[in-house]
Structures are given as structure tokens and as C-alpha cells.
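Re-run requested by the PI after the first attempt was lost when the workstation crashed. Everything re-entered from the original request form. Ligand of interest: pyridoxal-5'-phosphate.
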Amino acid sequence: SSLFASVELAPRDPILGLNEQFKADTRSNKVNLGVGVYYDDEGRIPLLESVRKAETALLADAAARSYLPIEGIGSYNQGAQKLLLGADAPQIAEGRVLTVQALGGTGALKIGADFLRSLLPQARVAISNPSWENHRALFERAGFPVETYAYYDAETHGLDFEGMKDSLNALPEQSIVVLHACCHNPTGVDPTLAQWQEIASIVKARNLVPFLDIAYQGFGDGLAQDAAVVRLFANANISMLISSSFSKSFSLYGERVGALTLVTASADEATRVLSQVKRVIRTNYSNPPIHGGSVVSRVLNNPELFQLWEDELGGMRDRIREMRHQLVEKLRDRAPDHDFSFVLTQRGMFSYSGLNAEQVEQLRAEHGIYAVSSGRICVAALNSGNIDYVASAIATVLK
Ligand code: PLP
């Protein structure tokens, strides 16, 4: 029989499946809130002016396309680690931080997971309940058993902080804990700085291995503010891994621009760790691509372009916040018996709206509004042209 005769059909990715369904929908007023992408007020994925300028400059002094080093573009990696830890971080000055270019945040998670798997073959991985849908699969594929720690409290639409602490305290030493550094996907619920402080104490006391995932830096309160937990952990002398992504913050999804950063205890340790991380990369894809990294590196290392980018990122952040305000206001008018004010305290692109699977299905079937069955909506897909329609439809399915 054929070599592939026994291959089973894999289940469809639930979110990508939703997009296919949306595309096939012929209703002209359809709205896709199922995505994980920032759209502008015209419903388009923006091409940032800072990116356009960097690309124009790159084109003007077009360089030959040799292979990049295994770890990628040096100036990109330095820019990425400064964004995370702060330009004058003592850990960077001491040579304790290493960063490698990665294929998006996903690539950074995968390189980190493969590295950890050889370092801690017996470890288990804990992810938040709920978490980004790819976390579990990614760490399981890397060979780890994956469990969840308490996180979201559906009653309060907030953080189950007591539950979270209990879960973390119950983990065996050297368990790997994946933490969303800001703008939690899918809930939009983040710990406060005081709560992060307590989490850091538990991580230290229990000798846990934090893997911070930061895919939305700048979408919460600002670039530095959103990295507060990274700096808190670093200043508490906690060794950690950080996967960061520029997919959303630069609107460069398809360029696969991410980075894996490790904060170690000494420069000597950093040298040895880098040599092993490079081995993981070498046996995966050898070295990263040039274009996206060159664009981001230009922006990060040119003060004028950096300022422009920070302003554009601030514009995206403000627009999302404005949509949160408007959604809450419009729902207050249309569904006065329901309190949606929690949407204002959530951060980043997403909101766990509290809608159940049945209501989500009704939104799709009767109104052409697509959301994830968990009730996750992408606030960044709302705009002045669709928000009244969406609010009215939500009010209808709440009845
Ligand atoms: N981590 C989280 C929490 C995410 O939400 C995402 C993207 O949706 C990623 C990682 C991956 O980002 P990238 O597209 O850069 O691979």
C-alpha cells in the first residue's frame, strides 16, 4: 500500500478554520473578531510609516544576500534585548543576556523549548488556563508534559490570583512556567505589578523556570511599562527565557520577526548557553532570513525612526483603548442589565467578552459576526464603521 496510507487527517486549527469560514461568508456586513491581528479604523492591516521608511533606505543601499550568522543580525538582537530589559540594564552591561533572532515569537518559543528539553529532560511545563492555543501543542511537540495553572476567573472576569499562586506553589522544582508578560492572550487579563512581585517570589522560592512570552509589547500601557515583569524578574536575579515578537508591534506578521532572549547568571554562562542555543538553530533551519530583521533593526537603531515607530505603536494602542471605551458605552445603552466595564481593565488586543459558545454561534449565524467559541473577541478588529452593528448584535444575543 501507499507510504502515506495510514496518515490521519489532522484536526483543523480552530482559529484559522474560523477565518476560512469568514472568507466564504457572502454577507456584506460581516465582521471578523476571531483574528489575532491589528486592523486600522478602515479595517486594513497597516503598513507602518516607520517600516516603509526603513525599507526605502534598505533598498537604496541594497546589500548582497549572504547567509546571516546562526544567531541572526547582531544589531537586531541588541535592539530586541534593550527593548525588553531597558537600554542601560545592568544585566546587559555584565554580558549576562543573550539574544538570538527567531522566526516570530513562535520560533522563539520553539528554539527555547528544544533547548530546555535537553537541559531539563524531566521537567514539566505549566501554561495558564486558558492560554494562547499554540502553547500546549508547541511544548508537547518539544517532548514535555504540559499542564495548566489557574489563571482566569470567569466570575469576576479577572485574575484568579489565589488559584494561580496555589498552582505555582504546587509545581515541582524546575518546572517550566510559561507566563504572558503583558496583554494576555486570550483573556486580556494581566497581573498587577504587585501581583507580579509575588509571582517572582514564588518562582524564586520554588526554583521554577520562567519562560516569559511577550508578543504584544507596546499594546498595553507602553513599551517600557509592558516589559515591567521582565525587568522585575531580571532585577530579582531570576534566570529566565523570553520569547518576544515584533509581528504585531511592527505589523510585520509575515516577515517572522521575533527573538529569543535568555538572562543568565554570568557572562561565562551566557557564552556557553549561546553555543547550545545556536546548535538548536543550526539543526532546525541553520540561520534566519534577512529582510524583516533588517527592517526592524533599522527602526530600533535609528532614533528618528524609533520615535516614529513608538508614536505609531502608541496610535494603535490608543485606538484599541478607544474601541474598548466605545464598546462598553454602546453596550451600556443597548444592554443595560449587563455590566461590561471589565472590558476597560483588560489589556492588549483581546477581550474575553463573557459570551458563551451558544451566543458566539448566534452572532455568527444571525449577524455574520465571527468570534472564537471561548468568547474571545479581537478588540483591534472593531472600528468606527462596525462597532454600532457589533454592539447591537451582542445586545440581541444577550436577550
Ligand atoms: N505568543 C502569544 C501569546 C501570541 O498571541 C502569539 C501570536 O498570536 C505568539 C506568541 C506568536 O507570535 P508570532 O506570530 O510572532 O509567531
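Saved to the shared folder this time. The chain has a mean pLDDT of 97.
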